[in-house]
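INFO batch 0412 | record 1 of 1 | parsing
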Amino acid sequence: MSVTVIQHVLARLRDIGVTNIFGVPGDYAFPVNDAICEFPGVRWVGCCNELNAAYAADGYARVKGIGAINTTYAVGELSTLAGVAGAYAEHVPLFHLVGSPPVPLQSAHAIAHHTLGNGEYNLFQKMSEPLSCALAVITPQNVVFETERLIAAALYPAAAARFRELSDLRSLWEKSCRQAGDGVKHGLIHEHSREWESRRVDHRLHRRLQARARD
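INFO prediction complete | emitting tokens
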């Protein structure tokens, strides 16, 4: 059975205890929004704005041990910064899934909405970096490795980590797979990445450490 990039990320977040993801829909994040709504064992919790979503996820993480939010690029992610900064400062494990513009737009430095009109697409990522313990632009080639790296960074020690999902990953990589003639259909995770599955962060250890801290 083939697995998409966002499905792998959601499966790993569910493995470590994330069952609710808070957020606000946005066009660059629609593929992630849809994947969350369709994914078994994970519930989308819509909020009235991104700042509320960040604080809701922060509160959820303080009770459950880990939290997650999903927003769109730029205006969405910037609106979460106060809540994310609080989680970062107080070592609350919080994952932020950001839906980003398609690869062709970014490669061409095209003018698009939610940008400053100067063709620079990593500006908001730079603004978020000081408030994140780890950040990655997720691709089919790196999703397994980077997911484990971000989970480990967020849990030991606890802090905020940020996944940046490209909104056109599904169509882009289905096309590339067909051009390569490798017979892959809808399977966006490359097989050579699966070697990293044996290096998954043990979420049971995280929960034991949490219990010890509470005692």
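INFO post-check: The mean pLDDT is 80.
INFO record closed
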